[in-house]
């Protein structure tokens, strides 16, 4: 009888350890601007990943109209990443369809990649979208983000590309908010689900 109780207790302990390992958290830092903080996207990603079986914790540093160069020049993001507190850093700036935006995506993406590597973190790009006024630049947005991610050996969350497919398939632009640039709640939710799906591919455990 005592032996049976001992085995039972041992099984409970092992089960608890297994559950803990299954529920271990990923720590993610979002770096961006109003396209990230509108509708509290990181928190939406936390909820979406939970449905995917992942447990994540997010932090965000995002300011209006900021590009990667602005965050880098502020110096705050370097201090955050240097603490080795993050498994993944997700960077975002404006649509970046033009040459200057592309250069910043690549040049400062390289700086972020080096910093992440030094602090045991992975780097990812959050591909956004142009305003409806500049919808004709959408292909440039997609191409430039894909190229930057490839050059800097970073993950890519192709939100903008999925948005474009949605628009073309439905002729419904409800992912845009009232200003036809920032995301609606539905648009942010779609973005969160896309990011969650890609996170699950990256970390299937």
Strand content: 5-15%
Count of extended strands = 5
CATH architecture: 3-Layer(aba) Sandwich
The secondary-structure element order is HEHHEHHEHEHEHH
Instruction: Order the strands across the largest sheet as they lie in space.
Output: 2-1-3-4-5
- From the N-terminal CA to the C-terminal CA, the straight-line distance is 37 Å
Portion in helices: 55-70%
Radius of gyration: 20 Å
Kindly describe this structure:
With 205 residues, this protein is of the alpha/beta class. Helix content is 56%, strand content 14%. It has one domain (26-202): SGNH hydrolase (Rossmann fold, 3-Layer(aba) Sandwich), CATH 3.40.50. It has 9 helices and 5 strands; from the N terminus they run H-E-H-H-E-H-H-E-H-E-H-E-H-H. It has a 5-stranded parallel β-sheet, with helices on both faces. Helix 6 packs parallel to helix 7 (138-151). The longest helix is centred in the first third of the chain and has 21 residues, at 2-22. 36% of the residues are buried.
List keywords for this structure.
205 residues; alpha/beta; Rossmann fold; five-stranded parallel beta sheet; 9 helices; 5 strands; 14% strand; globular
């Amino acid at each position: 009888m005592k032996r049976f109780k001992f085995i039972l207790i041992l099984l409970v302990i092992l089960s608890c350890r297994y559950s803990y390992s299954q529920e271990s958290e990923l720590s993610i830092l979002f770096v961006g601007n109003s396209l990230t903080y509108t509708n509290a996207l990181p928190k939406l990603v936390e909820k979406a990943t939970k449905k995917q079986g992942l447990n994540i914790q997010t932090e965000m540093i995002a300011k209006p109209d900021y590009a990667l160069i602005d965050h880098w020049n502020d110096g705050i993001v370097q201090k955050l990443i240097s603490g080795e507190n993050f498994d993944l850093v997700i960077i975002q700036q404006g649509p970046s369809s033009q040459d200057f935006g592309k250069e910043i995506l690549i040049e400062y993406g390289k700086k972020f990649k080096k910093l992440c590597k030094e602090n045991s973190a992975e780097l990812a790009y959050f591909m956004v979208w142009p305003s409806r006024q500049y919808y004709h630049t959408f292909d440039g947005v997609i191409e430039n983000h894909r190229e930057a991610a490839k050059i800097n050996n970073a993950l890519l969350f192709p939100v903008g590309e999925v948005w474009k497919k949605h628009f073309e398939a439905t002729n419904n632009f409800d992912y845009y908010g009232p200003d036809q640039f920032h995301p609606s709640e539905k648009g942010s939710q779609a973005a969160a689900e896309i990011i969650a799906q890609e996170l699950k591919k990256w970390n299937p455990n």
